């Protein structure tokens, strides 16, 4: 079946000097990174495919103009981050679907471990909430969801961070 419409990529930015750290976060999310040292690097969502044109993330260094605007945000940032922590499902985010419940759980545990034990990632990445499909307060009954926050890379201001919804679907085939 030919598919004419699809998400090709998400472009994300990282702070100057944090390219390697951004690579590590993509790897924690289960992506395979390819970095030829150019302007950006690519993180493949499906580790079995190497399609630069589809189903991938690109990441490059945030420009000085963005960093100047972010510096002017001042103390307003902390209020935003607290709102995101309280209700991550209501924040701007993108979803990343994994193939098995075991992979979903392993990524969550790896991120929790890194957020506690990795000096470079402590305070820079966290699991905001896990919502199993069968919990009384489930957001969705067809999938397990985990919301992850990082400020290592973002599709907007780095100081606000990026929320990623990690999903495992009960039914792998789309309806």
From TrEMBL:
It comes from freshwater metagenome. This is Unannotated protein.
């Amino acid at each position: 079946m030919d598919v004419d419409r699809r998400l090709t990529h998400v472009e994300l930015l990282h702070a100057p000097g944090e390219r390697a750290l951004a690579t590590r976060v993509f790897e924690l999310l289960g992506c395979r990174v390819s970095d030829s040292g150019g302007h950006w690097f690519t993180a493949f969502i499906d580790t079995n495919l190497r399609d630069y044109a589809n189903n991938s993330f690109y990441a490059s260094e945030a420009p000085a103009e963005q960093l100047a605007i972010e510096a002017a945000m001042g103390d307003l940032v902390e209020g935003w981050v607290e709102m995101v922590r309280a209700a991550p499902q209501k924040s701007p985010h993108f979803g990343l679907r994994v193939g098995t419940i075991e992979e979903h759980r392993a990524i969550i545990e790896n991120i929790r471990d890194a957020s506690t034990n990795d000096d470079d990632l402590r305070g820079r990445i966290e699991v905001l909430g896990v919502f199993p499909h069968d919990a009384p307060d489930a957001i969705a009954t067809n999938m397990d969801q985990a919301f992850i926050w990082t400020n290592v890379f973002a599709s907007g201001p780095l100081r606000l961070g990026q929320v990623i919804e990690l999903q495992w679907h009960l039914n792998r085939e789309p309806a």
